[in-house]
Amino acid sequence: MVRQTGKQTPRGTARLVLICVGLLGIGLIADFFWASSSRFNTSLSFSNTWSPPPNTALLSLPSKAKSKEEKGKNESQRVLLSATFADLPAPELKWDKMADAPVPRLDGAAIQIKDLLFVFAGYGTIDLVHSHVDIYNFTDNTWGGRFDMPKEMAHSHLGMVTDGRYIYVVTGQYGPQCRGPTAHTFVLDTETKTWQDLPPLPVPRYAPATQLWRGRLHVMGGSKENRHTPGLEHWSIAVKDGKALEKEWRSEIPIPRGGPHRACVVFKDRLYVIGGQEGDFMAKPGSPIFKCSRRNEVVYSDVYMLDDEMKWKTLPPMPKPDSHIEFAWAIVNNSIVIIGGTTDKHPVTKKMILVGEVFQFNLDTLKWSVIGKLPFRVKTTLVGYWKGWLYFTSGQRDRGPDDPAPKKVIGEMWRTKLKLNP
Ligand SMILES: *[C@@H]1O[C@H](CO)[C@@H](O)[C@H](O)[C@H]1NC(C)=O
Ligand SMILES: *[C@@H]1O[C@H](CO)[C@@H](O)[C@H](O)[C@H]1NC(C)=O
Ligand SMILES: *[C@@H]1O[C@H](CO)[C@@H](O)[C@H](O)[C@H]1NC(C)=O
User: Fold this and answer.
1) Ligand lying closest to the C-alpha of residue 371
2) How many CA atoms lie within 13 A of 184 on its CB side?
3) What CATH number has the domain bearing residue 372?
4) Contact at 8 Å (CB) between 209 and 262?
5) Chain segment 47-87, per-residue pLDDT in tens
6) Which residues cross the membrane (predicted)?
7) Which of 57, 70, 283, 348 is least surrounded by Cβ atoms within 10 Å, i.e. has the fewest?
8) Is residue 61 domain-resident?
9) CB distance 112 to 119 below 8 Å
């Protein structure tokens, strides 16, 4: 799955069919030629504006970049895919816009404890990361209570979980752009707002799946130290009341598929790992600022579960591939509810596609459903649930209803009355 990271050779001149989609998706205008030097190596959406090239009305079809359906068909048979083809039918929901977070955040982290949502870290822009915590109170719907994170704590791609008082904070990326990870691990006592060290992970990871299960802090998957290669390793350490009971992490059964940005929950004594991806942006070789450059990514819909047998079981997959959902979920009654994310890139344009649906997975019946539409497509949302209301804040939203590629990093907070399927 791992792509070469060396310099790419030019792929030569590829013939293009340039299709004007326009607002209604019509019309074939012209053929032309395009020198395609790289499909993934361009530092696409991570420039100053966080956006891919301004090419919203045009779909280009390089002959080397056909989707599966396209393969084996000649030109006259090619199907035109609109930019929004990945959207699933979903019920409309009424969303209320609440107070904006003090800062916008991409790749932040969040943990809900009772009526408080603790929101950590994240990128403000690609060149600026946050090193503090903001708190949203679901009872009076206000932000407040800002406090600092430890200076050594990672700023994005964190693993994080709570026991209801202590928040365990594992590894992650240290600094802006596509900088290296740290193995440093902390615990926050949310009552005293004090931080302590925990034994560092054996090696650092980006955005590993993280949960507390049977008295142990479990950390699995994520990307390896180069930010791209999926890690399969799984470690755990015994913890209680914010303290490690052991000096070292121990190895556990590796996860069947590695990679970052997955939802991970424990429900009725079973551990679930949901969605995610293989591959991620990497630092451009030699770049003094570790400039992010895009690499191939495979987003998946896989769901895995561990129970008494301590063997991974495969469960019904998500309605579509979904990644960047590690803090985008809430458990309500017997279901996990997941908001937004990223799905597989557009097969033709290769642009990143954001997710605009709310998913429900009933952990008793193991049934997925699409239970609503978001006000826009958005990734790395931070989610909470309180007294009938489903909330999300932060993340990076789409360019508009007709363009699911990522654009603005937001701090908005939204809520809707949650209606679950039985
Ligand atoms: C392309 O497919 C169409 C429809 O099957 C066929 O009529 C046509 O001859 C094909 N053209 C080429 C160049 O193979
Ligand atoms: C949230 O706000 C309500 C109303 O102001 C307050 O009574 C409550 O104590 C706050 N929650 C916490 C945990 O501080
Ligand atoms: C959760 O279950 C309770 C008890 O059955 C029910 O009253 C409530 O409406 C459910 N919540 C949602 C969001 O469906």
Assistant:
1) 3
2) 17
3) 2.120.10.80
4) yes
5) 333 443 333 333 333 444 445 555 566 565 566 789 999 99
6) 12-35
7) 57
8) no
9) no
